[in-house]
Amino acid sequence: MCCPIRGEYDQPEVAGETLTLTTTTSTYDTGLLDAIHPEFEEMYGVSVDAVAQGTGAALESARNGDSDVVMVHARGLEDEFMRNGYGINRRDILFNDFVIVGPEDDPAGIQGMSSATEALTTIADAEAPFVSRGDNSGTHTKELNLWEAAGTEPGGDWYQETGSGMGEALNIANQQGAYTLSDRGTFISQRSEIDLVILVQGPIEDGPEILANPSGIMAVNPGVHDNSNYDLSMAYIGWITSPGAQDAISNYQMNGEQLFFPEAVSEDPNFQQYVPEGWSSNSTDT
Asked: Residue 143 needs a FRET pair 20 to 30 A away by CA distance; which of 156, 207, 211, 273 works?
């Protein structure tokens, strides 16, 4: 029998199935996924169950076989996940940045600083209240990396770990007149409800590059968890990295401001996105 006509098997037979996506609280709480998912669900006749967790918890769910695909933003944790064989087919997907926010009167005097690490050191020296998510999320991981880069170990009565998502951490910081590290998207989505202001900008507004916040997406390896919905995961990754979905991400706004910036479509794609950072073809013996 001759080969099937091109296009006959373009889409996997997934109608009626559910894709479990574990993702960061920022992409979920900002409403981005609710805005863009209907197109994918209608295209394939499926539903997407987006479970919002910190990056560490999202990856742990995937390691346990409780997720089909993960969308997270802590490259070191993503690389570990791939090196251990749990994740495959990683793609860059979008980025925004982190900002340091705090009360408008800025008791530590960090406003406008060009160095995020200097700002954190100044907060620590002043023992000004600081709220940490403390939840092994991508934001918490970035915060710990910043403290390490600053050569400062936070602790004491001024430093509070909440074990909460970004939205709740912002609310607690607002109630206590404290500083915190936030992704820009979640801060914009809540700005009208809190009194905190951006005091140290990220690279989107010409702040330090160390505050960049890229996100990646990976399918769960069906060789490790044979119950994972690999066909639907790959359909989803293909869709969300397509020009149309990337345009939808770019066009998503809140209060007239763009929250996320697409990164999957590029004239010069970065090969490093597909493999753990530092990997090369010469990194293993042949």
From this structure: 273
